[in-house]
């Protein structure tokens, strides 16, 4: 990219990143949403994804600490509240734990992180380091995967409710809130990026930041696929399902 893009052209380039690289395209998600994973494989997904969910407010706190404008901070801190809640038992992390509870995973085991795949830990922590070390503009741009999340959420909830009897609307309640939170947050971040990326170099940096975030999400599914689907070689010490069911099997 050599010339300055208009705000509309920049948005188009960012949306193209999602079209090509968002993790909705990953084979693991197609298996998950299509009902072709067994009970233990769904457990492994929920357990590993917990670490990503738990670290989102840590990531957002790092972004918040770098904002010198009070109005910007007031907007961004809502993301932390969304995940942490105002009180114990509230917020997105608590709702994710209801999912892992519903899948029969011991809550203490989930939150201990003992069963994580190494690649899950490395990917999530790389994201936290990215927002701490890169510019504020790049940190905000990396959150723009939220532009693409409503589509995958709708597909996931519909597919899982249709194909697995071991999940319910209640256990999947985390995703209900994200259908409104993610578009709100994405609209704000996109407007910020389009306004503040004023040079070709800055525009290229925000595109690369979004590509990096897509990579963070993609590699987590790579780890799950090769540990629990093919060739089923989970890392020593990582979660091993103790109960397995055929895809979609009624328990």
TrEMBL record:
EC number(s) from the headed UniProt entry: 1.3.3.11
Residue ranges constituting the Thiaminase-2/PQQC domain according to the UniProt record: 12-222
InterPro entries in UniProt: Haem_Oase-like_multi-hlx (IPR016084), PqqC (IPR011845), PqqC-like (IPR039068), Thiaminase-2/PQQC (IPR004305)
Pathway: Cofactor biosynthesis; pyrroloquinoline quinone biosynthesis
Keyword annotations: Oxidoreductase, PQQ biosynthesis
Matching Pfam families: TENA_THI-4 (PF03070)
Keyword 4Fe-4S set for record: no
The keyword Oxidoreductase is annotated on this UniProt entry: yes
Broad enzyme group: oxidoreductase
SUPFAM superfamilies: Heme oxygenase-like (SSF48613)
Catalytic activity line of the entry: 6-(2-amino-2-carboxyethyl)-7,8-dioxo-1,2,3,4,7,8-hexahydroquinoline-2,4-dicarboxylate + 3 O2 = pyrroloquinoline quinone + 2 H2O2 + 2 H2O + H(+)
Physiological role: Ring cyclization and eight-electron oxidation of 3a-(2-amino-2-carboxyethyl)-4,5-dioxo-4,5,6,7,8,9-hexahydroquinoline-7,9-dicarboxylic-acid to PQQ.
Similarity annotation: Belongs to the PqqC family.
Protein name according to UniProt: Pyrroloquinoline-quinone synthase
Organism: Pseudochelatococcus lubricantis
Gene label: pqqC
């Amino acid at each position: 990219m050599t010339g300055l893009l208009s705000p509309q052209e920049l948005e188009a380039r960012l949306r193209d990143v999602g079209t090509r690289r968002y993790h909705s395209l990953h084979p693991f998600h197609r298996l998950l949403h299509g009902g072709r994973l067994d009970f233990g494989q769904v457990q492994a997904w929920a357990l590993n994804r917990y670490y990503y969910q738990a670290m989102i407010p840590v990531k957002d706190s790092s972004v918040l600490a770098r904002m010198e404008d009070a109005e910007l901070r007031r907007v961004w801190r809502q993301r932390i509240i969304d995940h942490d809640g105002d009180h114990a038992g509230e917020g997105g992390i608590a709702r994710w734990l209801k999912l892992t509870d519903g899948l029969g995973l011991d809550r203490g085991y989930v939150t201990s992180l003992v069963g994580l795949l190494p690649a899950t830990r490395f990917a999530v922590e790389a994201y936290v380091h990215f927002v701490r070390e890169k510019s504020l503009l790049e940190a905000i741009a990396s959150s723009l995967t939220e532009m693409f999340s409503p589509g995958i959420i709708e597909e996931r909830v519909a597919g899982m409710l249709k194909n697995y009897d071991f999940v319910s609307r209640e256990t999947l309640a985390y995703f209900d809130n994200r259908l409104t939170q993610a578009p709100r947050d994405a609209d704000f971040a996109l407007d910020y990026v389009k306004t503040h990326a004023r040079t070709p170099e800055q525009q290229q940096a925000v595109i690369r930041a979004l590509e990096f975030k897509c990579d963070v999400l993609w590699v987590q599914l790579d780890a799950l696929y090769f540990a629990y689907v093919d060739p089923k070689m989970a890392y020593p010490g990582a979660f091993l399902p103790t109960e397995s069911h055929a895809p979609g099997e009624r328990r």
